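Give me structure tokens for this 323-residue protein.
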Amino acid sequence: MTVNTTLRMVNLGVLLMLATALSVQLGGAVAATLIPQVGPMGTVALRITIATLIIAPIARPRLRGHSRTDWINVLVLGLCLGGMNTSFYFALGHLPYGVAVTVEFLGPLTLAALGSRSWRDVVAIIMALLGVAGVSGAIGARWSQLSLFGIGMALLAGLCWALYAKAAQRVGGAWRQLEGLWFAMVLCTLIQLPLGIAQAGANLLHPTTLLLGLTVAILSSALPYSFEMYALRRISTKVYGIIVGFEPMLAALAGLVILHQRLTSWQIGGMALVIAAGWLVLARERTGSVKVTASDDTVQPEDSPAPRPNSHGSRASDRHTRS
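Here you go.
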């Protein structure tokens, strides 16, 4: 494979992640309008159940030909999905949309900086912490006015987000196309649907609720999860953590346009610090390398796990349809 081909494939991964960021923020803003009607658990249940049905014909899942490790990775991915979505929607019930996303972003940003001894990453982490303090309202506000529960839920969502990125990379490298993702979503559905029914009951079946749920499922699950599974085969988790740094800015715009939520000057400044911290880490990541296997079409970021041969003797990523 030529260097130009490699760069094109990596660039495709970056474009897919940018599309993911935009789709997620639009879907999250729509979900914020659904939470008052069916609650966080009902919103998650609608989102993951409908998205699972949408992805099924694309994934064409098969039960055979997978190792015990493959299934463990799927289990971890499913738990990360459930934890990430549920905690984030609970955070949305107590925080403005842009604030919740910015606090959540600490997860992938920390993932991008972990294990590095670069001074840039130390400065980036300090900037990110100051930024989150500003965007959360901790600076210049009384503690009695802060929703500690909402901030805690957003931080938990960020932790699950970071774990999701690692789990999705392992699943994407070992399973055919979206097969592993679909099984993870089925697991998540089996857990979340009964909880959603218990919270929202018959309200889940209201036509308006179903339409909003379909919109959220497409924008927040079906499209971004599919894009991420493709993108994480082409980019490292460090680059992943930086690209999603656009999300606080996109979240603020989505909150303003869709939810009519305005941010204070402290919150805008805090978001700017978080975004700048992400790009500071990116300056180091640009010096990284990408390994290319000459015998096939596998593009392997230097910090991602190598795809394992499957039971048929070919690499799972080789059979991946590049689109």
